[in-house]
UniProtKB/TrEMBL annotation:
It comes from Sorghum bicolor. This is BHLH domain-containing protein. Signal peptide: none annotated. Keywords: Transcription, Transcription regulation. Residues 88-97 have a biased composition (Basic and acidic residues). Residues 1-20, 84-104 are annotated as: Disordered. The lineage of its organism: Eukaryota, Viridiplantae, Streptophyta, Embryophyta, Tracheophyta. It comes from the Eukaryota. InterPro entries: IBH1-like. The keyword Transcription applies. GO terms for biological process: regulation of DNA-templated transcription.
Length: 104
């Protein structure tokens, strides 16, 4: 009986190389996340991804806060009037106070 030889497909080695390249790229990205996200240096990759998502949410909140503070400062520097407190509806309480912030 004739001995059959297994033929490897020409791309078999290519798949292995491609997989290794993907694993190396993923490893680099995980290391970069560990470097960027506070407190993530020694945690498993699954937790690292959750921590990264939380960190992004906190960074976005900080950006929104800084934008609001920046707008507030811009208004105060131009002598604008700012409504402080209250939630939109004013029923005569002292919840909302109008303040004129023009410079002397």
């Amino acid at each position: 009986m004739e001995e059959r030889r297994r033929r490897r497909s020409p791309c078999h080695g290519g798949r292995r190389r491609r997989r290794r390249a993907v694993e190396m790229a993923l490893g680099r990205k995980v290391r970069e996340l560990r470097r960027l996200v506070p407190g993530a240096a020694a945690m498993p990759a699954e937790r690292l991804l959750l921590r990264t998502a939380d960190y992004i949410v906190r960074l976005r909140a900080k950006v929104e806060l800084l934008r609001a503070v920046s707008e507030l400062i811009a208004v105060t520097n131009h002598g604008g009037t700012i409504i402080v407190g209250g939630g939109g509806h004013h029923d005569g309480d002292d919840d909302a106070h109008t303040s004129n912030l023009s410079s002397s």
